[in-house]
Specification:
By secondary structure, chain A is mostly helical. Chain A has one domain: Transmembrane di-heme cytochromes, Chain C (Fumarate Reductase Cytochrome B subunit). Chain A has nine helices and no strands. The N and C termini of chain A lie far apart (about 55 Å). By secondary structure, chain B is α/β, with parallel strands linked by helices. Chain B has two domains: about 160 residues, NADH:ubiquinone oxidoreductase-like, 20kDa subunit (Rossmann fold), CATH 3.40.50.700; about 100 residues, Cytochrome-c3 Hydrogenase, Chain A, domain 2, CATH 4.10.480.10. In chain B, helix 2 packs across helix 3 and helix 4 packs across helix 10. In chain C, strand 1 and strand 2 form a beta hairpin. Chains A and C meet through helix 1, helix 3, helix 6 and helix 9 of A and helix 2, helix 3, helix 9 and helix 18 of C.
């Protein structure tokens, strides 16, 4: 079997299976733990829990201005590579078709030129994030292997994707296979590292939103 | 049969001018992207050459490759080819049949020992001793081995001979294999395609005749002159791919506008062939231009590539069932994990023994 | 109890005579048992973005990365992943994430108690919504069972166990109330068998700010409700809540609330204290397992209601003021508007601090930090930040609604020879009550 057929076939199926198993294992493993019931009376006029949760989930997208004094780079650069990744993943025609094969529906694609530009910007932004993590004393102290592995496995699909679409470095099929294999590794790692924040943020923000909402406190 | 007259002399006899001869050589040279000087070298080489003995074997095939090569778009040139070579055995085109045909094959093999070219069309079944395709009681496997033994070079024409083709498609009941799997060691050129473009066959043979060696080949043994680039990279609809304009289904608005066929299954990006430039039927059209996505027919295992109408990014394999099973497994592991955690919380260090690092 | 230093030069206090491994095990066991669903979700969610550091006064004023809030949780986090998380068996099997050792716990004592006031500013900064402040409060449970808390806080713990209050023996309470009543010429009620309102106190009122004891009496007498102080349940502050001593936290809460219920009160008024609010308003029901049939409100909320419903009228002061928002009352407690209503009713023009309301900087002394003298250098650094913000407003008055904040800010003012007086909302209301 050639590398591309392996990547598109058994490798991808295996990786997706591990992804599903791992995500559900981790989410359900945490969400099925018992919760302490809060019997204190909520503040009068407090919104229902679901609304407080939603307000937190959406509201925390924008940091308070006062934290941007020191947190500007983290916030702005963080948005750049997240939005860049979103564009590359969800607005590129071949990716949309891959998702369509899984979920059954698709949506219009952006022109490839914009995707490539987004890819380059994303790669640059990720590199900047790595430099910051290594150079900033706070970041350096709190970073773990998890952070560096997650960075690498996010960076590789971006650069292999750019290499494949520009046919740089090897035959196209080889580059495409490497790109797909880098996604396979990414999917396998996803549930076990900090990439899981893609799902966890809903519950983490939501829980604090509920706590603050019933107290009438601003989050 | 035996012919010691050089091709140059033969052409002159037939009234083909030196100029026409040169013109043909330039045409084939430019077709194969050879430098200008090669045209003259090719003409000289051809002029000096003896009529090359060619034995064309037909195994598990549909005869489409033979049909393709005989669809001469420029009869004069194709006839030239048939005059350059001595087609000593070709089951569709030769007048003889049965034992007489077989005798012709053996005679050609003996007379041109070490110098004849074997062209193979179709894959070779290997299961159960190869009985699934036999001619006159002789299995293809046996016929191939005995014919190729003293050949100068082997040309596998079509995807069946090059890679196994349709017979090899899942579940491959006859154990079909490519010629390359069987002839180890002999110079081999694969001219894949289902069928191949006529010029690809003709051009490659001309090259061998002129220069006495195989042209530059890719990693799959295909002549780079015809298989060096993907359909995608030469497709006239490429701008629409780049702009994100696709046909969503056949004959929809996008299809009528001539937009990219990626979404309806085109395998252009991973298919190497000359269809987008040389096209078919003398440059009239090719599948994409006629509104149908490339099947990827010049690539190995194109029949098992996921489906002609499923877009390229669709994963291969039964993902639906696997993922459903994975979901159940994940949920079970999650519930199990939280159950274990709760138990562990109660029991951890409950006995006064500490956990060493 | 002795003050010690780790091999790496970090100071810590250790109480009791448990051997090291037993301490470590006690901490680990407590850590492990502390994790329910919400804490677990949070422990899974940190993406190491570092935003929490930008919010913490101890990091911002010192630039020392070890004060990054999430870093303070390291031993707690490690216990979680190794013993409670969904992949915990894998962690143990593969030996991932080293087990927490006694040295680490000793080193982390000052991070959890000296460099954190439980102010919760980090919670507001975290893009993943992790309630770091709440988690640090939980981590303190394990530190307490290990006997690794600052000596001063442990002393207050023992005092509270002996006296029912870290400030004064219960026997002295009635006298303190009577003395205050006489000194300020205000009629006071003490130990009435039945009353609608029970008034509770915090150490600050019983020691430095005794005027507050009669200020509330004055207001309650004015509006003519039935109220009483009660020796059996006067202490509203909760050193157990701050230290991580869950047993004591429960004891102190129950004593206060059971007593109020026994008196038949419908409202329990908490003093101008921050952590009292958290312990009583938001965590008391936890001990009862059901809603408590008692209205528990903070002094500031009570005053806010009185002014907005017109039950009391105030003589306008007609000057400018700025306001320090006590963290546990405002950011963590939700009482943002009430103090502002009161300031408005006092005729004070509010010049907000650059960071005010939910985003205000902590005074630096909460969560036991002001009582923990080892933390003084850090506390003073945090104070300088507040001082600058207050000065930048140019306001004449400087008001707050928490006794500990008031003490912290006053101590800071003394250290830096700052002549700004820190005033109490309750005192201002009582002093400007229209007869």
């Amino acid at each position: 079997m050639d590398l591309l057929s392996f990547a598109r076939g058994p490798a991808l199926t295996f990786a997706m299976a591990i992804f599903v198993i791992g995500v559900l294992w981790r989410l359900i493993g945490v969400l099925s733990l018992p919760a302490w019931r809060d019997d204190s009376p909520p503040r009068k006029g407090a919104p229902p829990a679901w609304l407080s949760a939603l307000q937190a989930i959406l509201g925390k997208m924008i940091p308070h201005k006062t934290f941007l004094k020191e947190g500007m780079f983290t916030t702005v650069n963080g948005y750049v590579f997240h939005i860049g990744l979103a564009i590359c993943v969800f607005a590129f025609a071949p990716h949309i078709l891959f998702l369509k094969s899984l979920f059954g529906f698709d949506w219009p694609a952006l022109p490839n030129g914009l995707i490539y530009a987004a890819g380059v910007i994303t790669a640059g932004s990720l590199l900047a994030a790595l430099v910051y993590r290594l150079a900033n004393p706070v970041m350096k102290l709190i970073s773990r292997g998890n952070d560096y592995i997650s960075w690498t496995l996010t960076f590789l699909p971006v650069v292999t994707g750019l290499a494949a679409s520009s046919h740089i470095g090897a035959r196209y099929e080889t580059l495409l296979a490497l790109h797909i294999l880098s996604i396979c590794v990414f999917l396998i790692w996803f549930p076990f590292g900090k990439l899981m924040h893609a799902f966890l943020f809903v519950f983490s923000r939501g829980a604090t939103g509920i706590r603050f909402g019933r107290r009438g406190a601003q989050l | 049969m035996k012919n010691v007259q050089s091709l140059g002399a033969l052409m002159e006899e037939r009234g083909v001018s030196r100029r026409a001869f040169l013109k043909y050589a330039s045409y084939v040279a430019s077709l194969m992207a050879l430098p200008p000087a090669a045209a003259a070298a090719m003409a000289e080489g051809l002029a000096k050459a003896r009529r090359q003995s060619v034995i064309w074997l037909s195994f598990q095939e549909c005869t489409g490759c033979t049909e393709s090569i005989t669809r001469a778009h420029s009869p004069t040139l194709e006839n030239l080819i048939f005059d350059f070579i001595s087609l000593d055995y070709q089951e569709v085109l030769m007048a003889a049949c049965g034992e007489a045909a077989d005798a012709a094959r053996h005679a050609a093999m003996a007379d041109n020992k070490g110098k004849y070219i074997v062209v193979v069309e179709g894959s070779v079944p290997t299961k159960d001793g190869g009985i699934y395709s036999a001619i006159g009681g002789v299995s293809n496997l046996q016929m191939l081995q005995e014919t190729v033994e003293n050949a100068f070079a082997v040309v596998a024409v079509g995807s069946c001979a090059s890679f196994g083709g349709i017979p090899k498609a899942n579940p491959n009941p006859t154990g079909a294999v490519a010629i390359s799997d069987l002839i180890g060691g002999k110079p081999l050129i694969n001219i894949s395609g289902c069928p191949p473009i006529p010029e690809a066959i003709v051009g490659s043979l001309s090259y061998i005749l002129s220069f006495g060696k195989l042209p530059e080949l890719d990693h799959l043994g295909r002549p780079k002159a015809f298989f060096g680039e993907t359909i995608h990279d030469r497709c006239y609809r490429r701008p629409f791919y780049e702009r994100g304009l696709f046909a969503d289904s056949f004959d929809d608005d996008g299809a009528r506008q001539g937009w990219c066929l990626y979404k309806v299954g085109c395998k252009g990006p991973v298919t190497y062939n000359a269809c987008a430039t040389l096209k078919w039927n003398g440059g009239v059209s090719f599948p994409i231009q006629s509104g149908h996505g490339c099947l990827g027919c010049s690539e190995p295992n194109f029949w098992d590539g996921g489906g002609f109408y499923r877009p390229l990014p669709t994963p291969l394999g039964a993902t639906g069932t696997v993922l459903a099973g994975a979901a159940v497994a994940g949920a079970a592991l999650g519930l199990g994990a939280s159950h274990l955690a709760r138990k562990h919380q109660k029991n951890y260090l409950a006995a006064p023994k500490s956990e060493e690092d | 109890m002795t003050a010690k230093t780790t091999a790496s030069g970090v100071a810590y206090d250790m109480q009791g005579d448990k051997p090291d491994l037993a301490r470590r095990d006690a901490a680990m066991q407590t850590f492990v048992r502390d994790f329910a669903k919400t804490a677990a979700i949070h422990m899974e969610s940190c993406v190491r973005c570092g935003m929490c550091a930008t919010a913490c006064q101890y990091y911002v004023t010192t630039g020392d990365p070890k004060y990054t809030p999430i870093n303070k949780l390291k031993p707690f986090e490690q216990a979680y992943h190794r013993h409670v998380g969904p992949f915990a068996p894998l962690y143990r099997l593969l030996g991932l994430g080293s087990n927490v050792g006694i040295e680490m716990l000793q080193e982390w004592e000052s991070l959890l108690f000296d460099a954190c006031s439980l102010c919760g500013r980090c919670t507001l900064a975290c893009p993943m919504g992790i309630d770091i402040s709440e988690l640090i409060k939980e981590a303190r449970h394990g530190m307490y069972t290990a006997g690794l808390v600052p000596d001063r806080l442990e002393l207050m713990d023992r005092t509270a166990k002996a006296w029912g209050s870290p400030a004064t023996p219960a026997d002295d309470f009635a006298d303190i109330i009577h003395d205050a009543g006489e000194e300020n010429d205000v009629p006071v009620n003490i130990d009435l068998p039945k009353a609608d309102y029970v008034i509770t106190t915090a150490p600050a009122e019983l020691t430095e700010h005794t005027k507050a004891l009669t200020d509330i009496a004055k207001i309650l007498n004015k509006i003519g409700v039935s109220w009483t102080y009660s020796t059996e349940g006067f202490e509203a502050s909760n050193i157990g809540y701050i230290n991580g001593d869950l047993d004591l936290q429960e004891k102190m809460t129950r004593k206060m609330i059971d007593n109020a219920l026994q008196i038949g009160a419908h409202t329990l008024i908490l003093p101008e204290c921050g952590h009292a609010y958290g312990a009583a308003r938001w965590e008391a029901a936890r001990w009862y397992g059901k809603p408590i049939p008692l209205r528990i409100i903070h002094m500031t909320e009570f005053l806010g209601e009185l002014v907005t419903t017109g039950k009391i009228k105030l003589k306008p002061i007609g000057e400018t003021t700025t306001f320090h928002d006590p963290c546990q009352l405002v950011r963590r407690g939700g009482v943002t508007q009430a103090p502002r209503d009161v300031l408005k009713a006092l005729g004070l023009e509010l010049k907000e601090l650059e960071d005010h309301g939910s985003l205000g900087w902590c005074c630096g002394g909460g969560g036991g930090v002001v009582s923990n003298t080892r933390a003084d250098p850090l506390r003073f650094k945090a104070f300088e930040l507040k001082k600058k913000q207050v000065e930048d407003t140019g306001a004449e008055h400087f008001v707050t609604a928490c006794g500990q904040c008031r003490i912290t800010l006053t101590l800071g003012a003394k250290k830096f020879k700052w002549d700004k007086k820190v005033e109490s909302l309750l005192e201002l209301v009582a002093d400007h009550l229209v007869d």
